[in-house]
Amino acid sequence: MSGRIIIQVFSFFAYLLIQALVVKNFVLFDRAFCFVYIGFLLLLPIETGLLPLLFLGFITGIGADIFYDSLGIHASACVLIMFLRNYWINLLTPQGGYDTGALPSLSLDGWQWFSSYALPMVFMHHLVLFYVEAAGFGLFTFTLTKVFASTLFTFVLLFTLQYLFYNKRRG
């Protein structure tokens, strides 16, 4: 179990550093922003309880807020998706359930399951993030285009990272 914790701590710092040093500057057409750091939150073990999820969401969001010089916007979006995560996973539970210690991943669960899990979570994160940033619905259409474009951009990058770096661990 301690090996898994060490890997999770390494993943936390890796995702935040990749976000802060590399991906922060990826912007397509002044609309699509990439927030790959939420990949850490989405790939936490399935049986993780609500309080650890909320805590990790807050810590991850505050880490992103520090690099983006924002005042809790990322933290609020991350805490929300961590609150919704277990409910969403329960809706997507296959008939046999999940294996003990299972991680949501493309290689273990397939692209259909991973897409139906990650895409709505990324969309919710971006929806909250951009509308809180806009401080209301005054720029509704512009903000909504940012949400959709950024959701697609982030999801494609997360999907690609899953495809490239996570090996198949099924026994």
Over the alpha carbons, how many angstroms does the gyration radius reach? 16 Å
Measured between the Cα atoms of the first and last residue, the distance is 18 Å
Structurally, the number of domains stands at 1
The residue fraction in helices comes out at 55-70%
SSE string: HEEHHHHH
Helix/strand class? mainly alpha
Strand order of the largest sheet: 1-2
Mean pLDDT: 87
Sheet with most strands: 2 strands, antiparallel
Summarize the structure.
The protein has 171 residues and is an all-alpha fold. It is built from six helices and two strands. A two-stranded antiparallel ribbon has the order 1-2.
Descriptive key words:
171 residues; mainly alpha; 69% helix; globular
Structural write-up:
The chain is an all-alpha fold. The protein has one domain. The chain has helices at residues 2-21, 38-42, 50-68, 73-91, 106-134, 140-165, and strands spanning 27-28, 32-33. It has a two-stranded antiparallel sheet. It is globular and about 45 Å long.
Give the topology, please.
Blueprint: H1 2-21, E1 27-28, E2 32-33, H2 38-42, H3 50-68, H4 73-91, H5 106-134, H6 140-165
Antiparallel strand pairs: 1-2
Helix pairs in contact: 1-3, 3-4, 4-5, 5-6
